């Protein structure tokens, strides 16, 4: 059922930036202090701001939950990098998700890709459902979108690449259908960052990030952000940002803004490293399959070439190891440079087993339907030397697969 009288009109984008990404990353939202000339902004830790008379604050700030200089500057920087008019920062990526879903009326319907971050799946199935928002998951969103839309559908939720199987979605294809029905499209861009992909340029209405990951990039901040072009969305979501109060501290906003300034350098190096690791894994007899959009063999490589900067694959990949869940665990325990830990997008390289960690809360049949098998290992490549990372992966594979078989043989167990 289409609603031609209520289509989504894409709001006008801001003017194309004069400067390149790196220049914007360093300078957007970073004015020099007019009094001291400091080139790095001070941290404004004050929770409240003086007023010269009742209702007349000295400057533009009254109370830090509503707005804060550090948060404002960070939001301006993210908006510039995502080609957006507005950005709003939240206390976590999950808080950004919650604020967007909270903006929907009870009885609303959402369509989401099946392969989403475990925390997003948890929110959709446990929290959103409790306040009357129903979510339908699809493993093939582009093919199913027209059939999944209902009269109550208000939102399409996309992760591209998805977490953790690195599937891609053609944003423009989905948005073209959704907008004919008056439905908003949200893209979680955490896995790629604004440097590799700008979803608003491809028709998305809102782009969200777990700032904890690539934007901050140093594994010392938990934070989220949403960026968009619609004044109506800004009015609605900024009201919820303040009313719900899920806002980051001034110090976290300052740290995230500091990290953002080197995003382009880190994203390029992470892509270089992930490409080297993915090629090594693809050539290994100990690996069943590799999921990395930078590989020519990736089933959605054509989408990557269309949507990603220079066809980059990003710093994230996953692979299925021979030997099942036990081999996956052994691999993560045998790496010497990669750290066994949740999260991603930091300067250090990490590995984890999604079925038992980040996606452990999703029922097994749902996980496997989305391609998240017990033998799947997720890899976040940092900015270390690529040769060291490649060597580390190969030695861990050998110990996890070949070493595991030898050990089982010695113990009299079957391989």
Number of strands: 14
Number of continuous helical runs: 14
Structural class: alpha/beta
The unreliable regions are: 408-415
Fraction in beta strands: 15-25%
Radius of gyration: 22 Å
Largest sheet composition: 7 strands, mixed
CATH superfamily of the largest domain: Type I PLP-dependent aspartate aminotransferase-like (Major domain)
- Proportion in helices: 25-40%
Order of helices and strands: HEEHEHEHEHEHEHEEHHHEHEHEEHEH
Q: Compute the number of structural domains.
A: 2
Task: Indicate the overall shape.
Answer: globular
Q: Termini distance?
A: 54 Å
CATH topology of the largest domain: Aspartate Aminotransferase, domain 2
**What is the mean pLDDT?**
93
Topology:
Layout: H1 21-27, E1 51-53, E2 56-57, H2 69-81, E3 86-90, H3 93-102, E4 109-113, H4 118-128, E5 134-138, H5 141-148, E6 153-159, H6 171-180, E7 184-188, H7 193-196, E8 206-210, E9 224-228, H8 231-244, H9 250-260, H10 263-282, E10 287-291, H11 301-307, E11 316-321, H12 324-334, E12 339-340, E13 350-352, H13 364-369, E14 376-380, H14 386-410
Parallel strand pairs: 4-5, 4-6, 6-7, 7-8, 12-13
Antiparallel strand pairs: 1-2, 3-9, 8-9, 10-11, 11-14, 13-14
Helix pairs in contact: 1-2, 2-9, 3-4, 5-6, 10-14, 12-14
Question: What's the short story on this structure?
Answer:
With about 425 residues, this protein is of the alpha/beta class. About 40% of the residues lie in helices and about 15% in strands.
Explain what this protein looks like in three dimensions.
The structure is a single chain. The chain is α/β, with parallel strands linked by helices and 415 residues long. The chain has two domains: 21-259, Aspartate Aminotransferase, domain 2 (3-Layer(aba) Sandwich), CATH 3.40.640; 264-406, Aspartate Aminotransferase, domain 1, CATH 3.90.1150. Helices cover 38% and strands 15% of the residues. It has 14 helices and 14 strands. The protein has helices at residues 21-27, 69-81, 93-102, 118-128, 141-148, 171-180, 193-196, 231-244, 250-260, 263-282, 301-307, 324-334, 364-369, 386-410; strands spanning 51-53, 56-57, 86-90, 109-113, 134-138, 153-159, 184-188, 206-210, 224-228, 287-291, 316-321, 339-340, 350-352, 376-380. The strands form three sheets. A seven-stranded mixed sheet has the order 3-9-8-7-6-4-5, sandwiched between helices. It has a five-stranded mixed sheet with strand order 10-11-14-13-12. It has a two-stranded antiparallel ribbon with strand order 1-2. Helix 4 (118-128) links the parallel strand 4 (109-113) and strand 5. The longest helix is centred in the C-terminal third of the chain and has 25 residues, at 386-410. It is globular and about 75 Å long. The N and C termini lie far apart (54 Å).
